[in-house]
From TrEMBL:
InterPro entries: FUR (IPR002481), Fur_C (IPR043135), WH-like_DNA-bd_sf (IPR036388), WH_DNA-bd_sf (IPR036390). Belongs to the Fur family. Signal peptide: none annotated. One of its GO terms (molecular function) is zinc ion binding. The lineage of its organism: Bacteria, Pseudomonadati, Pseudomonadota, Alphaproteobacteria, Rhodobacterales. The keyword Transport does not apply. This is Ferric uptake regulation protein. Binds 1 Mn(2+) or Fe(2+) ion per subunit. One of its GO terms (biological process) is negative regulation of DNA-templated transcription. Keywords: Cytoplasm, DNA-binding, Iron, Metal-binding, Repressor, Transcription, Transcription regulation, Zinc. Homodimer. One of its GO terms (cellular component) is cytosol. Fe cation binds at H88, D90, E109, H126.
Length: 141
């Protein structure tokens, strides 16, 4: 999502948008990965060297509580973040490198709906995170 949309959503929720909060919102809006707070701080401080790590932590917490950001846990002990209004997708995490691969698979989406229905529920949301390691390709000898 565009950073202006994040800022607009923050303002619509009544959040006071300081210059430093706007910088964090722009950094998040520009992210095409899943940065943790330390990475967000590095990117924000490149824009404004006066921004503090504490400010970034407080801003991320505020945005998360307001439903602007989604907190993701990939099993590596680091909370990562993405725009809560991004299009739905799932994640495959390479546990050896930490690389996070986003994917959409309609078969998985359909299967989850079927499972919920079979158990007497209507699915209203889900989060799927696959933890994986690369498979060695057989050598051609």
């Amino acid at each position: 999502m565009a950073d202006s949309t994040i800022i607009q959503r923050c303002e619509a929720k009544g959040l006071r948008m300081t210059d430093q909060r706007r910088i964090v919102a722009r950094v998040i809006g520009a992210a095409d990965d899943h940065p943790d707070v330390e990475e967000l701080y590095a990117r924000a401080s490149a824009v404004d060297p006066k921004i503090s790590l504490a400010t970034v932590y407080r801003t991320v917490k505020l945005f998360e509580e307001a439903g602007i950001l989604e907190r993701l846990e990939f099993g590596d002990g680091r909370a990562r973040y993405e725009d809560a209004e991004r299009d739905h997708h799932d994640h495959l995490i390479d546990v050896t490198t930490g690389q996070v691969i986003e994917f959409i698979d309609q078969e998985i989406e359909d299967l989850q709906e079927k499972i919920a229905a079979r158990l007497g529920y209507k699915l209203i949301g889900h989060r799927l995170e696959l933890l994986a390691v690369p498979v060695a390709k057989p050598s051609k000898t």
